[in-house]
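S., here's the first fold you wanted:
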Amino acid sequence: MANIDVRLLKYFIAVAETGHLTHAAERLGIAQPPLSQQIRQLETQLGVSLFRRLPRGMALTDAGDAFLSDARAIVMRLDRAIDDVRLVGLGQRGRLTVGFTSSAALHPFVPMVIRAFRQETPAVALLLEEADTSELLDGLLAERLDAAFIRHPLGDVAGIATAPVLVEPMVLAVPKRHRLARGRGRVALSELANEAMILYRRRSGQGLYDAIIAACHGAGFSPNIEQEAPRLLSTLSLVAAELGVSIVPASLMRMKVDGIVYRHLQPDTAPVAPLHLAYREGERSGAALRLLAHVRATVAQTSDRVA
């Protein structure tokens, strides 16, 4: 049976359902003589007669009748398997694991894209995982992840490509009773020269950390880093506890944390927080490629996209 061409099964089914070689040939779009030869070839391979040849048609033998349901099931399963693999290749079915940093997840772009992708491809099993940038890149290289939303790429990582998504400003987070909590204008970064600062630890967010340090140096001072927090939300908790001030992506202003006031920084020296989608170079996963295309299309429609 393993050597039987599936076309022979389809020919057999057509003749069985029409009861006539001519009608079956018309349905299949082939000539009658080759169809007759294919039916005889199938009977030879099986070692049984599937049809009784009548003056005006073809009738199934007992063996043919018994074989018909199995032949239909085999063809149906094969057709379904072909459809499934095509849908997987097109990214309309399968599995997709997407990672994100905690700061990336708080920007509205990320849940918007994930929500739209899920609505457009409901047959794709979508799994989400939060981790720091280095862990996400390791996950991509180990193929545990298919894509990841990260902030600053950590230089050139072999095998990893990134697609720019957007750039958002960073803002100052200060305790409610802090002197810089008052006022409505923008704060100069140099005003933080003597402040105790709380930063998202470098190991978890090297890009954001380095951008803040570079901006402070550009403003003429080295920051006094009082503490480093493992998560951005932990950073805000420490600021609310009046242990220092911090600089965070502007999207965190959506987090209404009691005891914190957000102030905009003067743009000439303020650091920025870009957002990228990281993926494997030469990616062939249909779902991952579909997500990448969806992200790029969404970026093209936004006003704050990266050129």
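And the second, which I think is the more interesting of the pair:
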Amino acid sequence: MDLGTTIRNIRKQRGQTQKEFATSCGITQTYLSQIESNSKEPNLSKLKEISACLDMPLPILFFLSLGNEDVKPEKRDAFNLINPSVKSLVNEFFKV
């Protein structure tokens, strides 16, 4: 799961700087940088705040962060089949 990169990509697509986004989330730019580089893992309450600032439900943020290695081998074919369609739908719905 690559949560930090997903957060960074959505933030950038929405045209926000790290400083702007960190301020809106009530965290420091340094902490946001650590989250986005996957060197720090925020707790669940902070993730809820971040997802609220992204205007995106936390489960959607988690789904967008999933990679093949996060899915059981016996379910990867199904994941690879639906993943592009679901991500496209999410991107359209949430304007990611």
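Why I say that: The two ends are 18 Å apart (CA to CA). The domain at 3-94 is CATH 1.10.260.40 (434 Repressor (Amino-terminal Domain)).

Talk tomorrow,
H.
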